[in-house]
Write a structure and sequence with these properties.
The structure is a single chain. With about 450 residues, this protein is mainly alpha-helical. The chain is built from 14 helices and 8 strands. It has helices at about 15-20, 40-45, 50-65, 70-80, 110-135, 140-165, 185-205, 225-245, 245-255, 300-305, 345-360, 365-375, 390-405, 410-415; strands at about 80-85, 170, 185, 265-270, 295, 315-325, 325-330, 340-345. The strands form 4 sheets. The protein has a two-stranded antiparallel sheet with strand order 1-5. A two-stranded antiparallel sheet has the order 2-3. The chain has a two-stranded antiparallel ribbon with strand order 4-8. The chain starts with 12 loop residues before the first helix and ends in a 26-residue tail after the last helix.
Length: about 450
Amino acid sequence: MMQLAPSHRRTGPLLVALLALVLLVPGCKKWDDTNLNSPSLNGLLENATVAELNNLVTGTEAQMRADMGFYIDAVGIVGREHYRFSNSDPRYVTDLLGGGSTVLDPNGFYITNPWSARYRCIRNAWILIGSAENSSFPTAAEQRGYRAFARTVMAHQLLLNLNLTDDNGVRVDVEDPDDLGPIVPRAQALSAMRDLLEAARADLEDPSTEFAFVLSPGFEGFDDPEGFLRFNRALAARVALYQEQWTDVNDLLGASFLDPTGDLRTGVFMEYSALTSDQLNDLYYPPNASGEVRLAHPTYAMDIEAGDDRIAYAPLRNDTLTQADLSSDRDVAVYGSNTDPVPIITNEELILMRAEAAIRLMNTGDAVAALDLIRTAHGLPAYTGGSSEEELIDELLVQRRYSLFFQGHRWVDMRRYGRLGELPIDRPDDDVWSQFPVPFAE
């Protein structure tokens, strides 16, 4: 089976509560057995040792994984990629699907949990920057490495929250927990992310920049300044894609790890393990499970082209499960175990971004060539459809749907192209939401 991996400033009550817990990162990573909770925050900010700074790097990377299950369930269920049947919480089949008179609750776990997790990670990254810059231990070259890592991570985490709230916006200025910046609209937030990534790029391009820290195996090949720069440029390309800055997308992809002839699975991943001090992949459920399950939306198999090996992401179950007038006979099986890595960004997504930019820049030949790389890799013949922009976008969205299944893209893609009305309505009184509310405490 194929598997993957108002404008005035104020203090937000939810974030302040979270920032007080910034060092309480759940679980040390398996490649570093140091205690993330041992250094005091004041000590770190005043004169952190390199070892303490490296603990913060490890803790920040670990926090990137927190509550990913809630995030993927939120965007995946609203985006009609999958169902989540739960014996303990009906909101997966009511609120998220707009069942009956239900609406999205700004106090609901499906927004507060992932929102909070991302800002904990961002705050960790700010502490890392402040600690490195206020310490006499790391060299200037090493300080640049810490800053570049932290700013790149912050941009990624902000983008995940913006994916949820979209035009409702996010906070981008959270450096000072006692004086938080305002919630800013989508366009301003995306610009802020690009600024973070460009500031990181400047540090990474300095030939003397050093990484004094060790990243997880999920960053293999991207764990030094040169490799991490390619990862940074890939994330910048994704942000530029959302900004519809198509020439920038092409330029950024050229500086990324895009490889049309390379392994589609090459990329950067979040790592997991079964060690007691670590975290399991919360996106995995065993096949044919009952009780707590994730099931592929029936249209995944109904719409897929014959011969597409990505059907393996949604294998048939031994039985059909039904809850709240929803039924499916296929599991979500993107991951084969609870320790499989989860992609942050891969070569496959970069090729699809190249195709999208080519379509929007009217480079039809390049677009079809990129789409065919994806099609043939998954057992399909070359594309023989129409060459109009609309037809090519149709094909692009199909390939993104299946290649990036269960990675949090489908709902965002359909929203970007004004096609949320094309997503299936399973019950007469259901709704397809266009965005989540900002948590009420904010």
